[in-house]
């Protein structure tokens, strides 16, 4: 289980460790600085050989303190190190001050104004200006200077951010004011911060390394989790495997409602996804005019005629239909007709609403919220999210003026609480929230990038994956997390050239690799 921390949670963990007497702030700072150097040498082994030149930019808080440690450790390795301080040495907090003094015994601290002349010759820039303590936008001139430091000749200068690229909010990944420009490497401590996985953060950082600084991992309900294999293998994968004596009815029966003639592709993609992920049976609910179109294009999938609301009500008399998917390619008219029936089904099937099933309620989201129940999952992309939750989206998209800024995690949690069901807010940073506040991020960033997922129909397959897992008996949040994780795994496994059809077909390979 990988927890992602807010700056307040990180401070609390550090403070508790310091208060318990287990460690001092100074020791933590030393480990943090040593961790940065270790990460640099691991990332660029060539920097471990011979002497190089580094420029270390230190800020007015403990992030700056880490910078002084890094400067000292690099100089001890024979490097030529230039140190610049933003702020007043007299006002440094105590641990940072100690490290400032230690550095002063070894070298000079230059004033910020001298930065330009020095910077062009460095092999390495260390951005230790602000970390988790950034609370207000960077002063404009500082932002400009940070951008300049990050844009020397890229072929020779590596930019390393300590904890956070300065200017980015550790809770939201948003930029507070200017600055916070590109970093080749970000080295954080103990646990990654929520902001590393959201918004601008991953767009601005090439790679993220988290170094252990000897603090205990404390888990609590309020933390955001990163959806990762370790977490999923605890509780989800056994649910994907099929046991020897199971039969198809053990694995649920999903119903995917399609659109009309010429509009059935999206539902067929979702259905294929539901089947491949292991639903026992998958039926497409198709209007009469599209029946031929669908019948000629499916094999293992089944088909039933669902013309209108009363038809759907009849079909749902079959209590074995335990997971429904509405939205992909459905058309908003048909969605308005069928969604209320699906949500009112008496035997309580689990329901995924995507695409047109969300857009259909753009004018009256409250009508939808009144019908939703705890067994639903909404899977909006940014546009659909803004249509259903306009005020939340507006708050999220507003330029922040102070930190911690309102984040995609906050927005998805608020949306889930309002909707009363699980909301999966798509993106390279897919956030999944339960109305209780439990929240996770499925990240397709850093070493898990999956840019080929940006292709028509990939969202339809995701809706299908989640529906299939719901049919298998997964709880809504767990289905959303596992479906989203496998979606990225399938994309990464297929690689370049991926089209949506490939995603379900790649799952067997992913499952084999997972040892299922
Ligand atoms: N607390 C600890 O025990 C540890 C902290 N560590 C480091 O300490 C960092 C957190 O330190 P701090 O809490 O001191 O915070 P920072 O060093 O991130 O920055 C806080 C300082 O910047 C000022 N500030 C905030 N926004 C500003 C703005 N826009 N313009 C000008 N000044 C601004 C604040 O008033 C404060 O003086 C972490 O990111 C990490 O790098 C590590 O050394 C590990 C141990
Ligand atoms: K920093």
Automatic annotation (TrEMBL):
Residues engaged in binding AMP: 426-430, 459
Protein name in the entry: Bifunctional NAD(P)H-hydrate repair enzyme
UniProt domain YjeF C-terminal: residue ranges: 231-514
Organism: Mameliella alba
Organism classification: Bacteria, Pseudomonadati, Pseudomonadota, Alphaproteobacteria, Rhodobacterales
Catalytic activity, reaction form: (6S)-NADHX + ADP = AMP + phosphate + NADH + H(+); (6R)-NADPHX = (6S)-NADPHX; (6S)-NADPHX + ADP = AMP + phosphate + NADPH + H(+); (6R)-NADHX = (6S)-NADHX
Matches recorded under PROSITE patterns: YJEF_C_2, YJEF_C_3, YJEF_N
Family: In the C-terminal section; belongs to the NnrD/CARKD family.
Domain of life: Bacteria
UniProt keyword annotations, A-Z: ATP-binding, Isomerase, Lyase, Metal-binding, Multifunctional enzyme, NAD, NADP, Nucleotide-binding, Potassium
Pfam name, any one: YjeF_N
Cofactor(s) in the UniProt record: K(+); Mg(2+)
UniProt-listed InterPro entries: Carbohydrate_kinase_pred_CS (IPR017953), CARKD (IPR000631), Nnr (IPR030677), Ribokinase-like (IPR029056), YjeF_N_dom (IPR004443), YjeF_N_dom_sf (IPR036652)
Chain ranges of the YjeF N-terminal domain: 10-221
HAMAP family in the cross-refs: NADHX_dehydratase, NADHX_epimerase
């Amino acid at each position: 289980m990988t927890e992602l921390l807010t700056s307040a949670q990180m401070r609390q963990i550090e403070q508790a460790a310091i208060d318990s007497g287990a460690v001092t702030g100074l020791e933590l700072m030393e480990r943090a600085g040593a961790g940065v150097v270790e990460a640099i040498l691991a990332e660029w082994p060539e920097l471990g050989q011979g002497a190089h030149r580094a420029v270390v930019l230190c800020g007015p808080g403990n992030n700056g303190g880490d910078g002084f440690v890094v400067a000292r450790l690099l100089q001890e390795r024979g490097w030529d190190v230039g140190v610049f301080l933003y702020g007043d040495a007299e006002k440094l907090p105590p641990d940072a001050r100690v490290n400032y003094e230690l550095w002063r015994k070894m070298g000079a601290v230059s004033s910020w104004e001298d930065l330009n002349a020095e910077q062009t010759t460095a092999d390495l820039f260390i951005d230790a200006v602000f970390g988790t303590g950034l609370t207000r936008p960077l002063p404009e001139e500082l932002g400009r200077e940070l951008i300049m430091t990050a844009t020397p000749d890229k072929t020779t200068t590596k930019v390393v951010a300590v904890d956070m690229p300065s200017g980015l909010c550790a809770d939201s990944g948003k930029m507070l004011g200017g600055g916070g420009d590109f970093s080749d490497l970000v080295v954080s401590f103990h646990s990654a911060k929520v902001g590393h996985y959201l918004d601008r953060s991953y767009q601005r950082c090439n790679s993220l390394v988290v170094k252990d600084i000897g603090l205990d991992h404390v888990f609590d309900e309020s933390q955001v989790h990163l959806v990762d294999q370790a977490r999923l293998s605890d509780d989800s994968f056994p649910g994907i495997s099929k046991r020897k004596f199971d039969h198809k009815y053990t694995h649920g029966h999903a119903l995917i409602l399609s659109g009309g003639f010429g509009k059935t592709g999206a539902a067929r993609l979702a259905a294929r996804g539901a089947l491949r992920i292991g639903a026992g049976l998958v039926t497409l609910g198709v209007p009469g005019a599209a029946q031929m179109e669908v019948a000629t294009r499916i094999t293992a999938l089944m088909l039933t005629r669902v013309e209108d609301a009363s038809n759907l009500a009849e079909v749902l008399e079959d209590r074995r239909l335990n997971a429904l998917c509405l939205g992909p390619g459905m058309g908003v008219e048909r969605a308005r007709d069928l969604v209320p029936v699906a949500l009112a089904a008496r035997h309580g099937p689990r329901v995924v609403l995507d695409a047109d099933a969300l857009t259909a309620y753009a004018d009256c989201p409250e009508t939808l919220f009144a019908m939703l129940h705890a067994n639903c999952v909404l899977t909006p992309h940014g546009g659909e999210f803004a249509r259903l939750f306009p005020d939340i989206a507006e708050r999220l998209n507003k330029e922040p003026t102070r930190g911690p800024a309102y984040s995609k995690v906050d927005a998805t949690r608020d949306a889930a609480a309002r909707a009363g069901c699980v909301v999966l807010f798509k993106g390279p940073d897919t956030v999944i929230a339960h109305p209780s506040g439990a929240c996770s991020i499925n990240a397709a960033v850093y070493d898990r990038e999956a840019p080929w997922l940006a292709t028509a129909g990939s969202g339809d397959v995701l809706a299908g994956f989640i529906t299939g897992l719901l049919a298998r008996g997964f709880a809504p949040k767990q289905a959303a997390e596992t479906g989203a994780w496998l979606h990225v795994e399938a994309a990464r496994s297929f690689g370049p050239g991926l089209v949506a059809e490939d995603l379900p077909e790649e799952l067997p390979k992913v499952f084999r690799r997972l040892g299922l």
